[in-house]
Amino acid sequence: MSLFKSHTRRWAVLAMGAAALALAACGGPRQDTLHIYNWSDYIDPALLEEFTKETGIKVVYDTFDSNEMLETKVLTGSTGYDIVAPSNHNLPRYITAKAIAPLDFAKLPNRKNLWPELMQRMEPFDPGAKYNVPYMWGTMGIGYNTAEIAKRLPGVTVDSWDVVFKPENLAKLKDCGVYFLDASEDMYAVALNYLGKDPNSKAVADYEAATAMLLTLRPHITKFHSSEYINALANGDACIVVGYSGDILQAADRAEEAKRGVEIAYAIPKEGSQVWFDVFAIPADAPNPEAAYKFLDFMLRPEVIARASNYTAYANANAAATSLVDEELRSDPNVYPTLEVFGRLFVTTSKDQTLIREVNRLWTRVMSGQ
Amino acid sequence: MSRPRSRAVILPAIWLGVLFAFPFLLVFKLSLSDSALAIPPYAPQLDWGGGLAAIRAFLGALDFEMYARLTSDRLYLDAYLTSLKFAAGGTLIALLVGYPMAYGMARCKPGTRNIMLMLVILPFWTSFLIRVYAWVGILKPEGLLNAFLGLLGLEPVNLLYTSTAVQIGLVYSYLPFMVLPLYAALERMDHTLLEAAADLGSPPWKSFWQVTWPLSIPGVVAGCLLCFIPMVGEFVIPDLLGGPGSLMIGRSIWMEFFANRDWPFASAVAIILLFTLVLPIVLYQRQQARALEMAR
């Protein structure tokens, strides 16, 4: 008898498992789970709880740490995610590959809150923002250790790319740690802009010129990496980096918390720099797009997105939310640049496969110093 | 071959087929495709419903273009050579460090031996990634090593993000794979052979060279190959400890796959890497077979 019982129990468990699988597979309206794939440490967990409380939709939240990782996964297909968060310059590739679905604006009434001037910057990569809802945005610039730079470059204000793109300046900083991003497209965009060329140039010759400039800097660069500089800046292993605004501001916070006398500052160089957007998009094969729309509209509410900004320390693209963001954040010109600085920011758009290959090949030359 | 034996071969054959041959064929097929901006990001796709004509069209679209491109750029050859150089150097150092360790362990009393064996295996209890990260803390400019050198009144050294750091990381991580087979070979050795050699007037170094060393050769070969083969394709260690100058083949594959989003080309690089490793793997297999033969 007991043997029989244990058998039935086992079968019951199996049947339940099979039922759950079948439910997950058909993914009809009864299934109320939302799968989000976003950058690590990039949302206030309380907001997700609120969303679940309000809608009854359970959120499964996974994270990635590079655009390359995300794109490779999404282009493999059937990721099971309802929302992914690529950066703007990769968006055209997703659109061409038909990897993300065009949005139904009728399901996003709160879209009206978006910031028109900012949305204009989206024209080069997603005209009319048909495929994306912007989440956070920021800039690329220079992060530096104020004391170390003052010691080595006395009297120099860090407000120009000259500090990092002139070999004679960088040579003086070599001993205290110089980190550049290991992101070929971003690095070439600012280098081309510094050389007075089009940051979205399609001419290989322009990239070769930028390579020549970067190669003169190469002997003075400690490491190319897209995330290690946060720690390196905060604990004093790096004194100057070319990186993303949010990361550098995060390093500044960490340095302050550590109380070891390290002070980190961020500057958007006066020659202009790249502005980037991390956007939400719905994969074409999303199992639960209805839940995805509900979440996107939830995130478009000014009071919600303002709290998201307070958590990430990035600016959002919601005009109605700006006044609700913490005073400290919204008055920081490095987070919310002045109109004048904003005018000098440019966006990049994606390159075709041949150009990407050429650019990455040149970037390998820069990194290996040959 | 007798019946029970041939039946025993089936299981490993299935294993090899499912976990090696099939994935290998998939990657090989991928390396003959072209990259495309689609899901999945390569072309052509085989249309299973299209019948023979579709299969013929599919096969016709495959080509060796990726391999031709591989030879047209020195970058990849250089990356292969760098990988082989690092792996060879790492293996040699691991042998030089590991041999005395294994020898000492084999000569210990059985109780001590087990403790020492345990100590060699102990690092595996921590994640590989964390152990490599620990070396960042040791080698960085204000790290433990320079603090120690400072105490001794010596000049600080800058090792992190250099080839030396990669070499240290490789030797450290793979040393147990060298020590364990060496230990197994040395522990089995009959010590009366050494006594006989001494009785016949052989000085210790000569006994070592003429008795111990030849008997430990199977352990040396196994240890060297167990270190060399994974070292060539190593990705994490050069990424965390190496500077941009130490471009190894593992990193090139990563770059093709993620930065260039070129799966076919990444596959071609991986296939060539596999062929580079076929020779040492065959050597290893043959040596293992011989050791089995000898043990019987």
Secondary structure layout plus pairing:
The complex is a heterodimer of chains A (370) and B (296).
Chain A lengths: L1 H25 L6 E7 L5 H11 L2 E7 L2 H10 L6 E2 L6 H6 L19 H5 L12 E13 H7 L9 H4 L1 H7 L4 E3 L3 H11 L9 H14 L5 E2 L3 H7 L5 E5 H14 L5 E4 L5 E8 L8 H11 L2 H11 L2 E2 L10 H4 L8 H4 L2 E2 L6 H16 L2
Parallel strand pairs in A: 1-2, 1-3, 5-6, 5-7, 9-11
Antiparallel strand pairs in A: 4-7, 4-8, 4-9, 4-10
Helix pairs in contact in A: 10-17, 11-12
Chain B lengths: L2 H29 L2 E2 L6 E2 L7 H11 L3 H8 L1 H34 L2 H12 L6 H12 L4 H8 L11 H25 L4 H8 L4 H29 L3 H6 L7 H11 L3 H33 L1
Antiparallel strand pairs in B: 1-2
Helix pairs in contact in B: 1-13, 4-8, 4-10, 8-10, 9-10, 10-13, 12-13
What key phrases describe this protein's structure?
heterodimer; A: 370 residues; alpha/beta; D-Maltodextrin-Binding Protein, domain 2; 2 domains; 8-stranded mixed β-sheet; 3-stranded parallel β-sheet; globular; disordered N terminus; B: mainly alpha; two-stranded antiparallel sheet
The major pleated sheet of chain B works out as: 2 strands, antiparallel
Roughly what percent helix of chain A?
40-55%
Identify the overall geometry of chain A: globular
Order of neighbouring strands in the sheet with most strands of chain B: 1-2
